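Hello,

Our lab assistant flagged a job as stuck in the queue for most of the afternoon. It eventually completed. Since we weren't sure the result was trustworthy after the delay, we are filing this so someone can double-check. Below is the sequence as submitted and the structure that was eventually returned. Let us know if re-running is recommended.
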Amino acid sequence: MTVPMGIRIARRRYITVCVLFWLPLGLSIAPLILLFTERGMAMAAIAGFFAAHSLTAAVLELPTGGLSDVLGRRAVLAAAGLLNLAALTLVGLGTTPWLLGLGMALMGAGRALSSGPAEAWYVDTVQAHSGPDAELRTGLARGGSATSAALAAGTLLGGALPWLLGLGPGLGARLSDATSGAVLPLSVPILLGAVVEIAFVLYVLTALREPPRPAAGLPDVLRGIPGTVVGGLRLGGRDALVRRVFLSAGAVGSALASTELLTPGRAAALTGASESGAVLFAALACAGFVCAGVGSHLAPLAARLAGGGERAVMLSLGTGAGGLLLLGATAAFTGVGLMLLAAIGYGLVYLGLGAAGPNEKDLLHRRVPSSVRATALSVQSLALQLVGALTGLIIGVLPPGALPWLLGGTALMAGSLLWHHRGRTTPPTPATPRLLQSAESAPASGT
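-- returned structure --
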């Protein structure tokens, strides 16, 4: 079937936004902690920096989702880019704890602001062009694949640049001397990410066109946010399908926390040194992003083969849970064969999560109105972050071995079972139309 030109343009712009937003994050993954260490920061300070990021993102998640629904997708997304630009600049050049902590907090604020506006813009644009029954899954899947590709490429480039700079005779030292120590080789990928953020902001402002919204001053905007947030929360409280999406996001957060916290130590134990373990972890992270991208690309096929989006979500999350359980089963053993099984398990985690994401989003967007769309996405993101943080705390007190892996695997399997025997999207309950009508009439525009 021929895709209309307007939808093709919307897909291309959405994919470009995904790449430009997530590439800077990918560039910072490999060098960030090492840069903090080079700046003389103790582990307690580094943990504090990441806590500042997480807490800022969690506190601002819902209010900023409501802000996007009130003020507009483009304005909020551009603000997220500007915050990330400031954050990456501070982190790349900062030499004192308060500057680095401020940079991480600003990065958390940018992450909260970016949670939902681009996706909401794409859905709004496609539905305005082709109606509420427009096909969404393909574009969302391609956006997910683009995000994974940007993270994978950024991780490789961010890990390679400092190493390449260190190959030249005295090049890293000359770079540090020329900038009075402000720029280290480890700073370069992060500052490159800041340059990409400039391109991101310019692209958002010029390419993401949206219908004009009613003029609203700051007091009107602030008054509109609480009603929009309440409308988004009510969707999860009164709509069973939306509630399953939110609960599944929590299960995914638990799975990701388990994988991201436990894999670096396992890689170091396998190689026998933290430095070589970090290299192995960077390669594994890149492979995980690639698997997530492949899974996202295959999401429409998964829905067709499974007989519907809900069954596809169930099978995809089950695949990821199987991967985590396989990682747990091999945690206490060594050997080439068992390491190969562990690598397969790691790939299955990200493949399953990648395939589940677009199908969940397709189901969610068909159930929520435009006035609370970004808020609903923020609730989903908040569930992922909070459950992930709780899982991390629990893992910290569990004994090493299979049990921490099994925690994430069990949570993800529970998320999969939420979709059992639901082969098609269930119609809204009688209360849902009134809920949506109420949400549409919330003071989202400040009127």
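-- support follow-up --
The delay was a queue issue, not a problem with the job. The result is valid. DSSP finds 18 helices and no strands in the chain. Residues 15 and 143 are 5 Å apart (CA to CA).
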